[in-house]
């Protein structure tokens, strides 16, 4: 052992004596992080009890299920009954104060002054170069209090951006538990659970309801393109909320689901996922992976009448000088083999893009996909597009070239999503 290693060993021994840790315990402590399970949400005991497939993934440090019992049947639970999905790992920020509206109007794309208390809107935010940092939902809980939900964590950026505004920004991801209740019987489940007045919620409305000595915020929102709601409750009341919904929903076939089923439903609805269908600017390593709102179908959000917003100058310059390089499109592909992560070609020879999500849609009865294409393909050049699919047939991959055509999103549109009052199935 060299002198440096000897000093290090002595230093560790001294530290262990000071902390009263035995050498064997010190080794165990040093290695324990390899065996530590991911964080559990407040609903974890109920989810673990229902898990049959034992198919987990890491969602922002949390142990989350890809599926719980059968990913195919979980998808059909969304479309035919009511599905319960734990959204607690979604990053949540409480933003409040006299300047909360002005602050959010400065950092997000949409006009927050048009968002009334008791309403929600889908929005996005950009860096100074006009590239998308993330997208998410903004809940206006009161005239001066908001909740911003997103895929990624942005607390340092939000705090830096808040300088000069009379506003407080606090992450409440662990303090607030969240559930998505989606599907045609979701309204009936809430009504039967005793949430009186929930029938008055129109699409993108929210309201507070009493629950277990506290309050649950229910919004008519979701990520499935179906009739659905999202519920946010203090973590201490999470399990009682779960039990209340499951008891009320049992006669109507309520089922807990994992992300695979939800991902299929969101694709049918034509909705995009950060770092799946586009790379957020903080995660992009290569410069050509960055995306402006107009390049991922979010250009409609940009409100140029509201004054300055992050990235405004760069976005306007890209539009004026035709510097937009990509376009996100919906595709319908011949055949019934999903084209996930397939390369998109023009005239079967020139690579022009990549499929980010694909499936055979049971609702649309079509082979659908979302793809990012290099302009002018997907913009002014829309014909003679093909995808390259590798299909596994009898232990051998077969290369298939299938024709693709541009189609509008969403791929399905369900009237029950926006029906008012909500349908009682």
Automatic annotation (TrEMBL):
It holds the Pfam family GCV_T_C. SUPFAM superfamilies: Aminomethyltransferase beta-barrel domain, Folate-binding domain. One of its GO terms (molecular function) is transferase activity. Residues 328-412 form the Aminomethyltransferase C-terminal domain. Substrate binds at residue 230. Keywords: Transferase. Gene3D superfamilies: Probable tRNA modification gtpase trme, domain 1. Residues 72-306 form the GCVT N-terminal domain. This is Glycine cleavage T protein (Aminomethyl transferase).
